[in-house]
Design goal:
Layout lengths: L4 H12 L1 H9 L6 H11 L7 E5 L5 H10 L4 E6 L9 E5 L5 H11 L4 E6 L9 H22 E12 L4 H9 L2 E7 L10 E9 L3
Parallel strand pairs: 1-2, 1-4, 2-3, 4-5
Antiparallel strand pairs: 5-7, 6-7
């Protein structure tokens, strides 16, 4: 199949993207690694010995960053619908996060302990139509939050990708009822054309 003009343009932008080039140079699996590194540098998210759940993990860029920060005694569990090549010290589950059996598998792997952080870079297959994409990503954000509400340690943290639009304000309001601090971040490594934002919530309390 011939590559369209639009496709060629995207490939060229991708090749010339400084974050793509930097990821290749440093051995990160994706440019998304720099979004998480920037958030960590600004907000000091992770420290040694933490347990972290990485949702929407493939191809593994965030998991790579987290594992370095939590160290050999830290625990990282990654999940994605897509395949992900193994990473040292990281447990991976391939499956659809919206399916009950996959959730049960994830909770079994976590065991009786709770997570210090649950992070989600999950995104739906985007259509480019906001009226379609917005509810899809909010469904994923809701699922991530429902899981976090069950599996976070007291005072734990939650990081989730969203788009600003319908449902966004209510989502933030609900998180502010359960966390001491909730802020919105747009890392420099996020492409300027992208509508993605990251909600960073910390200081979880169970009610």
């Amino acid at each position: 199949m011939a590559i369209t003009k639009h496709g060629k343009s995207w490939i060229q932008r991708h090749i010339n993207d400084p974050y793509v080039q930097k990821a290749q140079k440093l051995g990160y699996r994706s440019r998304a690694s720099f979004k998480l590194l920037e958030l960590h540098e600004k907000d000091h998210l992770f420290s040694p010995n933490m347990t972290v759940i990485d949702l929407g993990a493939a191809p593994g860029g965030w998991s790579q960053v987290i594992k370095k920060l939590v160290g050999k005694n830290g625990k990282v569990i990654a999940l994605d619908k897509l395949e992900m090549d193994p990473l040292p010290g990281i447990s991976f589950i391939q499956g659809d996060f919206s399916e009950q059996g996959v959730l049960e598998n994830l909770e079994q792997m976590l065991g009786s302990e709770k997570a210090h952080w649950i992070i989600s870079d999950m995104s739906p297959n985007l259509s480019g139509v906001m009226a379609v994409d917005q509810p899809r990503i909010m469904v994923l954000a809701d699922l991530a939050w429902e899981f976090a509400a069950r599996c976070l340690k007291p005072d734990g943290g939650f990081l989730v990708k969203v788009f600003q639009g319908e449902g966004f304000d209510l989502y933030i309001k609900n998180l502010r009822q359960r966390f001491r601090r909730v802020v919105i971040r747009k890392p420099d490594a996020s492409r300027s054309a992208s509508r993605e934002l990251y909600v960073l919530a910390r200081g979880y309390y169970n009610i």
